[in-house]
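Re-running the complex after MR caught last week's input typo. The corrected sequence lines follow. Everything else is unchanged.
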Amino acid sequence: MSEAPAASTETMEFKSELRQILHLITHSLYSNKEIFLRELISNASDAINKIRFNSINNSDLLDGDTEWKIKLIADKGKNTLTISDNGTGMSRETIVDQLGTIAKSGTRAFLETLQQADEASRPDLIGQFGVGFYSSFMVADRVTVVSRLAGDPIDQGVRWVSAGEGEFTVKTVDKETHGTDVTLHLKEDEKEFLEEWRLRQVVKEFSDFIEYPVVMDVERHEPVEGEDDKTEAVVREETLNSMKALWLRSKDEIEEDEYNAFYRQISHDYGDPARVIHYTAEGLTEFKVLLFIPAKRPFDMMFGDPKVGPRLYVQRVQIMENCEELLPPYLRFIKGVVDCADLPLNVSREILQQNPILDRIRKNIVKRIFSVLEEMKKDEFDKYVDFYRELGLILKEGMAQDFENRDTLTSLAVYESMNTEAGKYISMDEYVDQMPPDQEEIYYLIGEHRGMLERTPYLEVFRDRGWNVLFMTDPIDEFVMTSVTEYREKKYKAADKGDISADESDKARAEDDEKTFKALIETLKGKITEVQDIRLSSRLKDSASCLVADEGAMSAHMERLMQRMGEGGAQSQASSKRILELNAGHPVVQGLQKLHDSDGEDARVESIGRLLYEQAVVAEGSKLDDPVGFAGRINDLLVKELIRI
Ligand code: ADP
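Corrected-run output:
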């Protein structure tokens, strides 16, 4: 961007997505308006974190100003509330980018959700998405930001002004101190935010743990010294928040409410966490950990880039807002703080990546998170299931990614199953413990939803034998199950792939059937070339036919997923040929065998054989290649049926 001449005022337009967000914010949010203050204080605190960190190697940035604070200035005469910080500040270029022309990734998806969400949950969505600054326009009809980047000369300050509609202006101005002043020109009916009691209340509720003092000048009437009956008005700067670094305090001093409030502050979640993990690790490396397992899927996991990893502090200085090195990606929903005094203060991300201390901390906290999840699964299964429904699909990624912890992650998985009622889950241990002696493998079936899985013919043999089948309905299951092979020495096996082991009497019957149906099957193989093989089924009890994948081949579900991914440009996957299984006990298959026996050339053999194939395609939820031909074949049969009437 070219350097604008000093003092020139430039008018610029908001990026269109931001305009829409602003429109929504100003026109449709009526509850919880006070969160604007949480957002502005949190931005101010981030800016102070930044200058503290940057000044470790460059103390010139500070101009001697190290009394970190965030000051609220309420001016009843002008009807303005200013939030002033001595953080890192913004240059003209940054302010234009950050407060006007850059929309974050996921903004469009976010807007759609926002438009659909009910009014009460909108402010929380806004906070979580991080359109934080724009929430000012809930209470202000004009916002002025005056800022100067630490290190820039005094005449390189910038003033940004906007009414939150289509445009904003920027002008280069003088600013004595580095940092940012955000001034809200309050709407007529939002004057309560000039009142001391109201500001105190909002800070206490939403920003109590911010680690820098949030201060305000308050006027008190104090007795005049030496004159007993006289008082005078004195203005004192008071700190409104407690600034308690919870993770540094001992566990038994902390109330659950305090943990919950702290969690809400750092996560932007509106509910309470499912679990709090707070401990001090001693030994080779000493560090303090305060982590939270959310009960709900964090919003940034659905839109935009999720921030992975807890905050990293070294001697109470925040070194990183999200330290990715401390948690594997599949634990990205964990929020919190890790504070380690043994790390050098002036670390860079590159140095951190190779630091053995971080590696030790990571191993330690991952282990601790697993043990807390295990404990929750054991002691509060229903609550654990609620957690797993929200976040299991992320945790499961680890089963494919983290070889070292695969067994633990497998044991943490819970599923719906054929023998459990809809909505009820079963743990892997329960499944294995309930396996009858003649069942050797863990059976599972992957598909879009339970209703569809329940109706598939693949389950017939399992119902008959009383063997349970796990239902896997997360999109990631198919991918995960290519990596997971066994649990407690039992192998996993897809119920719709390969052959199902048969018992002795079944085997004898199967051999007889094999002989009876041999000729029919040979004929059909020559006619129905869409399949790679045709055989008698060991899994069907009620249905006449089904399609199965070869052991190790892609299932129908996976093929549909791949095809969907291929749609819209990328090359589409050629589907692998499947195996058609026929039920030797079914009257249609038996009738067909008899027909073939009397006349192998009869045209009805192919047409009925084809119908058996086509009904199997429909039953597994796939599309027919020739729906018109299928309808024709059905109609031929219907006509014959009707002629008889
Ligand atoms: P977020 O804080 O989630 O990034 P915001 O819309 O609240 O979203 O802020 C956008 C950006 O503007 C911030 O990322 C930061 O770069 C900048 N910013 C906002 N407030 C301040 C401030 N007080 N000091 C310095 N930079 C700020």
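None of the earlier attempt is carried over here. Confidence is low (pLDDT under 50) at residues 568-573. Residues 396-494 form a domain with the Rossmann fold fold (CATH 3.40.50.11260).
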